[in-house]
Every structure is written in structure tokens, then in C-alpha cells.
Automatic annotation (TrEMBL):
Signal peptide interval: 1-24
PANTHER family with a match to the protein in the record: DICARBOXYLATE-BINDING PERIPLASMIC PROTEIN (PTHR33376:SF2), PTHR33376
Top-level taxon of the source organism: Bacteria
Keyword Signal: yes
Name of the molecule in the record: TRAP transporter substrate-binding protein
InterPro entries: DctP_fam (IPR018389), TRAP_DctP (IPR004682), TRAP_DctP_sf (IPR038404)
Keywords recorded for this protein, A-Z: Signal
Gene3D superfamilies assigned: Bacterial extracellular solute-binding protein, family 7
Keyword Hydrolase listed: no
């Protein structure tokens, strides 16, 4: 009898310990508009595994992909108010919130992906990330989003003249709107999740995005003309709600920062593979890839630069980025 009581007591203690551990774990909610398996989604899952291991199970991150928690503009506001713990959002929607994000969002500011990484992996990037804290967000890392190019349902686009009159969806960002309008097309801001049906019904004629998004969104099924103007090599932001961040101990804050940085290498490797796979898939399915001379596109951007670089500090940041070799 005594042995049985001891056994019961030990089992009870073990169960209690397990329940205590389960109760101790805090699961943070992270939002992403992209589908499951997308490089940004998988990178945050990788970060979650690192965080869970290094906090001894105190924290983990549950990624809500495919826009389950809302479109990008909406989840930014939710994160600022502490409703969502983490967000992965393109830099464009932050332009009206964090002025420092304007420069990396300008058309043709980066000469290549390598230039973008060199500029943002160092002091300049740290300054831009730090600027988010004044807006109730703690930005942790930049993720690659490749080069964005125009695609449409109507015709080949080789020059700005070919864009004239086309209705093109853009991110809900003033820079994107001004860029498209400067090229002679009609910018139509709308949430990402509405683009497929809008092209299908003729509300818009096309959009602009990178290879993996063009393929995974199934936009390539409708908009068969993809023009390699590569107007934007704009990174994406991984950020936490400051309300959530302030609840972490300094030790745990450092764990989250380091895990986010390590997730960047994972995301970039997945991204590079995804770009190759996506391009091959859409070309095999009949998309027409159109080469363009970028110079006329770049020349058309002067009014955009004049407007967004009027502030001396923003222009200084632009000049520092351009000067990176």
C-alpha cells in the first residue's frame, strides 16, 4: 500500500510539473499575409524554435499565415495597440508611420540585392530599425523580398509608354502610388488579398510584386505579362508590439533579438531558392517575361525623389545608402 501511495504521489508530482510548465509557456501571435511555407512564414517558425529552446520553453511563436489576422495595414495598428504580438509586413505600409522607411522604399534606390543587404545589415539598418520604437513597435530584422516588377493582363510592357492607362494595384503607400502615376499608369491601392479577383473581373489590369508572390498568389494565372523593370528592392520588416516587448525580461529581449537576426539567414536562403522555383514555374505555365531598359523608368522618378527627399534628414539618409559600395 505504501509503495502504491508513493507511486501515486510521484505521478502526481510529475503531472503537476508538466502542467506548471504548460502554464508557464507564453505563445505569442505573429501575423503574415503570405501562405504557409512562404520564406517569411518559415523564418518566423525557425525563430520560434530558437526562442523556445533558449527560454527553456517559456516562450514560443505561433505564426498566423495567409492574412488570418488581417491585411498588413490593419495588423500594424493591432500590433501598435498590443492586440497582436508580432508582425511581418512589407516596408511600404510603414512609410506614413516611420519616416525613415521612406528611403529604402524609393524606386531604384538599391542597385541590387547585394547593395540592399550591405546598406541595411550595418549601422544604417540599425538606425532605421531603432526608429520604430517611437511608434509603439520594436523592429527586429529585415527580411528579403526580392525585386518587385510590373505584371498585367493586357500587353508587354517594355517602356513607361506601355504602362499608360493601365490600372495597377499597389500597396497602400503614397510612394507606390506616386511611382506608378509618374510612369503614366493609374495606381489603385488595395489589400493584397483582393488582387486576384480584381484582375479576374477587370477592376484592375495588373499589379507589381516579386517572383514568389506572383506565383504563390496565382496572379500569374491571369496576368501573363511580367516586365523585369525591378523598380523596387524593398525589404520587409519583422517587428514586435512594444507592449509585448516591454513584458519581456532584458535576458529574454536579447534572446528574441538574436533569434530574429539568425532567422534572417534562414529566410534569405529560402528566399533565393523560392525565387528560382517560382520563376521556373510561371514561365513553364506560360508567363511571358519581358526584358526592359531601366533608364527611362529611372528618369521618370525625378518628381518622386523631389517630393520624398525634401526633408534634409531623409535626403542625408538617401545619400548614405546610395554611397554604400
Amino acid at each position: 500500500m505504501l509503495k502504491n501511495l508513493k507511486r501515486v504521489a510521484l505521478v502526481a508530482l510529475a503531472v503537476g510539473a508538466l502542467l506548471s510548465t504548460a502554464r508557464a509557456e507564453t505563445v505569442l501571435r505573429s501575423s503574415d499575409t503570405h501562405p504557409d511555407g512562404y520564406p517569411t512564414v518559415e523564418a518566423v517558425k525557425y525563430m520560434s524554435a530558437l526562442v523556445k529552446e533558449r527560454t527553456n520553453g517559456a516562450y514560443s511563436i505561433d505564426v498566423f499565415h495567409s492574412g488570418q489576422l488581417g491585411e498588413e495595414k490593419d495588423v500594424i495598428e493591432q500590433a501598435q495597440f498590443g492586440v497582436i504580438d508580432m508582425i511581418r509586413v512589407s516596408m511600404g505600409p510603414f512609410n506614413n508611420i516611420v519616416p525613415e522607411t521612406i528611403v529604402p522604399s524609393l524606386p531604384y534606390v538599391f542597385r541590387s540585392t547585394e547593395h540592399m543587404r550591405k546598406a541595411l545589415d550595418g549601422e544604417i539598418g540599425d538606425e532605421i530599425l531603432k526608429a520604430f520604437e517611437k511608434h509603439n513597435l520594436v523592429a527586429l530584422a529585415f527580411y528579403d523580398a526580392g525585386a518587385r516588377s510590373f505584371y498585367n493582363t493586357k500587353r508587354e510592357v517594355k517602356s513607361p509608354a506601355d504602362l499608360k492607362g493601365l490600372k495597377l494595384r499597389v500597396i497602400q503607400s503614397d510612394i507606390f502610388v506616386d511611382m506608378v502615376n509618374a510612369l503614366g499608369a493609374n495606381a489603385t491601392p488595395m489589400p493584397y488579398g483582393e488582387v486576384y479577383s480584381a484582375m479576374q473581373t477587370g477592376v484592375i489590369d495588373g499589379a507589381e510584386n516579386n517572383w514568389p508572390s506572383y506565383e504563390s498568389s496565382k496572379h500569374a494565372e491571369i496576368a501573363k505579362y511580367y516586365s523585369l523593370d525591378q523598380h523596387l528592392i524593398v525589404p520587409e520588416i519583422l517587428a514586435m508590439s512594444k507592449a509585448t516587448w516591454d513584458k519581456l525580461s532584458p535576458e529574454h529581449q536579447e534572446i528574441f533579438r538574436q533569434a530574429a537576426k539568425e532567422s534572417v539567414a534562414k529566410q534569405r536562403a529560402l528566399w533565393e531558392a523560392a525565387e528560382k522555383t517560382a520563376r521556373a514555374a510561371v514561365e513553364a505555365a506560360g508567363s511571358k517575361v519581358v526584358e526592359v531598359d531601366k533608364k527611362p523608368f529611372v528618369d521618370a522618378m525625378q518628381p518622386v525623389y523631389d517630393k520624398y527627399l525634401a526633408d534634409a534628414e531623409i535626403r542625408a539618409l538617401y545619400e548614405r545608402i546610395v554611397a554604400v559600395k
